[in-house]
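S2.1 Query sequence (Ribosomal-protein-alanine N-acetyltransferase)
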Amino acid sequence: MNAKIDTSDVQLETKRLLLRPWQITDLKDFNEYASQPGVGEMAGWLAHQSMEESKHILQMFIQEKKTFAIELKSNHKVIGSIGIEEDRLANDPAFQDVYGREIGYVLNRDYWGQGIMCEAVLRVIEYCFKDLGYDYLLCGYFLKNHQSARVNQKCGFQFLRNQDFHTRFDTIEPGHLNIMWNQKQRI
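Output C-alpha cells follow.
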C-alpha cells in the first residue's frame, strides 16, 4: 500500500551530498542533466528539448513533494534527483497490509561511476525505514541499464520479479523490479 510522503521540509545529508527539496533556482542545473542524451532514456523519459520543458517538470517536482534534488556539498551544484514514487504494487493483495514506496533516480552523466547514486539511495533507504517506518521499498531498472542494476545490487535490493516498464515515450522496456524489506518491521 502506498505510504504517505512529503519531502517539502526534509533535508538529508551524506558525506558528499545534500538531498533536499527542489527550488525554482535549480532550473539551470536541472536542465543541464535532463537535456543530456542517454540520461532520461535510461529512466523512461526523453531528454528535455528546452528550458521551458525543464521548468514545467521542475514545478511539478516542487508541487508533488516526493522528489529530492541531489546537491553536491562541495560546490552546491544539483546533479540529479531521487524520487520516492508511488508503489506499483499498491493494488496487489499481498501488499495490502504493508506500507512502502518505489525509489527512482537519475544522475548527470558527468558524475556516473563515482558511487554518488549509491550514497544517495542508501541515505533515502535509511530515511524511509528509520524515520518514516516504511515496511518495504521497491526499485526497478531496465535490463539495458547496467548502471542502475549495479546501484540496486550495491544498495541491497533483492529480485522480486521481471517487469515490463511503460515509458513516457511509448515504448515497453523489459526490466527487473526489486524489493527491500525493513528488517525491523519483519522481526
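The chain is about 30% helix and 30% strand. The longest helix spans residues 116-131.
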